[in-house]
Input
Amino acid sequence: MMRWIICAMLIVLSASGAAFGESTAETIYFLSDDLKSAISYYNKRNSDMGSPGFMFTQGFNKQLIMYARPKTHQWENTLNGEPAEVLRFPFTSNFAYLQRHLETSDFLLTKDNLHFQVWVDGSQCIGDGCLMDENIIVAVLPQKFKVTNYKANVEGDWKITGNTYTFYSKKVKGASVLIDFEDTMPYAYAEVAKALAKFNDINIAYDGENVKVAMPSEGMFASGQITIEKKGKEWLYNLAETLKRIKIKELRVEGHTDNIPIKKSSQKLYPSNWELSAGRAANIVRFLIDAGLDYKKLAAVGYADSRPVVDNDTPANRAKNRRIEFTIVPVDEGPESESNTDQKAEIQ
Output
């Protein structure tokens, strides 16, 4: 799964054939929250006599070079008579450029549903005599992930600030780092969120201990009723099928209403919102049991209008308060990951 992060394929030495002068390379790597993409920025600085140039793949998008100095830099479309995209800095002793690159596939190694590995390559020094005075790699991971191991392929120093891991190395041809990390969200959250993602009206959250699912009463029940409607059955079926595949300690079903009293036509069955909210929660529990969930892990409770999420001052707000909430208490999945901070291990 290891591959080049930056598009530059070859560093062309100066026309005179002289070796590079002082050279610094920086790779800054940002991983997306959903792990579906990553953006990296590569900054090359060098002092060199002659006309240093950098070759990119044919058809390379030149807009990805966000900064190039001095302004006298030039783009050429051939190298030794062959088609190529070459960024050249003619007759200068100092130059710098910043390149942006978007990765959307094959950059992430998935070990399982919670554990991952990413490789960031800062090796942009190719050719005999090429040696960087300083090579810097910065990997920025979203806060929801926990790093469990990090290492580099060369000697160097690490600086860690939150989920930003910076590696410094000197007098090397290039450097790369390998970072292992895990999702702090439980497996139950990932599976429930995936199963219910197609339903726009349902909210899924994780509070650090439990998975929370909120379904609106509209679509689940008719006004003043506890009979589950077609859309609600579809929601509950998807939830039940998911929960049967994962381990949970408990599932609490909570009925909530707004502060509008029960209509007189329904008061014989449900004297108040307390009975209505409890009846709805109990009916959902019966549905989930029929769908195959373990009744010993289920609980139903009605809160009426005692726990609103917003003030009941507008029709829209009252609709938000009319809801069914599910509290899923997950079972810890798998053994705890070992934390290994071997900073100078060899990358295989």
Observations:
- Residues 63 and 338 are 42 Å apart (CA to CA).
- The first helix runs from residue 187 to 196.
